[in-house]
Amino acid sequence: MLKDEIGKLFLKLKEKQPLVHHITNAVTINDCANVTLAIGGSPVMADSPEETAEMVAHANALVINFGTLNSSSFSAIVNAGKRANELGIPVIFDPVGVGATNYRNEKAALLLNEVQFAIIRGNHSEIASLAGITASTKGVDAGEVSESAFNTAKKAALRFNTIVVVSGETDYISDGEKTCCIANGDLLLTKITGTGCTTASLIGCFAGSGDNLFLAAVAGISTMGICGERAARRLASGEGLGTFKTRLWDEISLIDGDVWKEEVRLNE
Amino acid sequence: MLKDEIGKLFLKLKEKQPLVHHITNAVTINDCANVTLAIGGSPVMADSPEETAEMVAHANALVINFGTLNSSSFSAIVNAGKRANELGIPVIFDPVGVGATNYRNEKAALLLNEVQFAIIRGNHSEIASLAGITASTKGVDAGEVSESAFNTAKKAALRFNTIVVVSGETDYISDGEKTCCIANGDLLLTKITGTGCTTASLIGCFAGSGDNLFLAAVAGISTMGICGERAARRLASGEGLGTFKTRLWDEISLIDGDVWKEEVRLNE
Amino acid sequence: MLKDEIGKLFLKLKEKQPLVHHITNAVTINDCANVTLAIGGSPVMADSPEETAEMVAHANALVINFGTLNSSSFSAIVNAGKRANELGIPVIFDPVGVGATNYRNEKAALLLNEVQFAIIRGNHSEIASLAGITASTKGVDAGEVSESAFNTAKKAALRFNTIVVVSGETDYISDGEKTCCIANGDLLLTKITGTGCTTASLIGCFAGSGDNLFLAAVAGISTMGICGERAARRLASGEGLGTFKTRLWDEISLIDGDVWKEEVRLNE
């Protein structure tokens, strides 16, 4: 059921070429633009507070990322997020590093008061921290949490009235009522930078292509997992993370709904 | 005629290793630096308003890009541009996303009053918007315009007393009197980010290597088209946009004047 | 002697997965994060003045890079550097482009008064300029200096009471008393951007994994040289700088202490 609809969503995306406005970090901004193009979308990365409200009006989705947050980008985010809400444009939030500093925690809390998110995507410790579930985050990557990822996804979705994606060995997608899980992925995805940020870009592309945001969340996170597996399978002896990254972008540009349906390990 | 001179310009570039100062966007800044090195130049990317006027004095060309414009980078651009004008250093302008927001339109108009450009490079809608020709820009990539690209290039060149490059399926290069077109390129060049920005880098490298700016503009835009074709021809089954990008950088580092002369489809 | 200890340091790094906080430039920030992951570390790139002092407290090393310095990043650097000093976290400084503008020279002088560095890495002209040895820097890459690189390394180490790495065809590592040199490397490493910045990342990863900072400096700079040679050896006809970069990241993700010991050309 979900599977057939997501298969069709790939076609819609290629047809619509949704414009996805990103306000993201300096580390992976190039990757986010390239992944958006690779899956069939069109990226725009304007991040000046003076223009984000105007730019987002052209977009089919807005992706917000906290990776290298500063006071300027935060203003740009708030301006764009509020305007997107007014216009009914779905907003995806990637709360990178929330839990690691008070600065990020405070800005995330402010933002959650100002902007209604369609989808929030993070690792377990980031989502737990956002939702006030006991958690400790080390830097922007690891972290330990007391709840199961399944419960964290569900609770955060209810708390913020949104769809929550918790990335990990198994990914959980919840709208507070139903919760799916995805078993695709490869450990190598954690060994290059940007696979989290670009997962949010994929989700943004799917969210900008159809009306069902839950499908978009499932499609985006699972596409990254499947493409990671496919790229890892092709690695030959003597090839490492540089080649893996190149192949991952290859796979994202080559995947279609049929490959997705064949390879996804989705538990509804 | 043009062909022989551009053939020689490749040699001059490799010999001189021109220092090309970029004030560019966060998305493709790494690509711009790598392409500058690949063609034989030397990049410097300083973008703080406090130092760009001093840094540009070392440079053989200045490349300005509006991709992720903000108030700080705009000051950096004005300071560097005015100093470059004083010193006779050619300034290349890539008006990314002009037409998409009032912010960009206003800043572009201000800049055109303050700085004399040697070469302006953009897609059709950006150049049309800059020159006040009826146009609509969607995000920073697409757009629809009423004039032919040929006429837009010519009119904008006359209006700004500069050389204008309009990138597209066919590229037009005009100084207001003569207008050339280039038929090289591949659709894949539009499917990765940064091929526009790095075309401006190539133009900057050629502009910093000789005295003829028209030749530099033709050389830069056609080099990207030719290298795109060569990279696309090498793509095997199962290879996608990640590999294409790697091969494109390969080709830019391997091309010389002889390959260029053999492969260019130039209509003088 | 040094060799055996560095062999073991590779194991420690893989085990510890040190968190390396970078405050670096926009050009190579993605490369720095990927190289940190590739060698076995964990990167965090927060660069807002409001949070760097808090973020660095989680880290095992701090890497500071002047590539695209501005007033905001300078504040972020000072805040993080002072806190790192208080906590005994080693700070690595890459004074990119020092000597090219007064702005950089002044900020570097200020920083050297405020923060005690564990290791400083730069090319000959940058280190000479920092230490007040007659030098001229062109842009951020080249430069001519009157002293031998050996002497510059030694003098700068004594002057700043630190370990100094001078990168070049031969690399010199000095603590003011003993000075080693490394003869690994390949000219291609100078033809892609970021091999200097990511060398500082490698040094940061090793510095965050053990107690001997001199070993860390030697390990970091030589690992880049060895991996550069290995990547260059694998280049086939028709492959250029794009493929070289991919292979370089491959090699950094594949190298271990045994390969290092076999390939290093170290003169103690």
From TrEMBL, chains A, B, C:
It catalyses: 5-(2-hydroxyethyl)-4-methylthiazole + ATP = 4-methyl-5-(2-phosphooxyethyl)-thiazole + ADP + H(+). Its EC number is 2.7.1.50. It is an enzyme of class 2 (transferase). Its cofactor is Mg(2+). Keywords: ATP-binding, Kinase, Magnesium, Metal-binding, Nucleotide-binding, Thiamine biosynthesis, Transferase. Substrate binds at M45, G194. ATP binds at R121, S167. HAMAP family: Thz_kinase (MF_00228). Catalyzes the phosphorylation of the hydroxyl group of 4-methyl-5-beta-hydroxyethylthiazole (THZ). This is Hydroxyethylthiazole kinase.
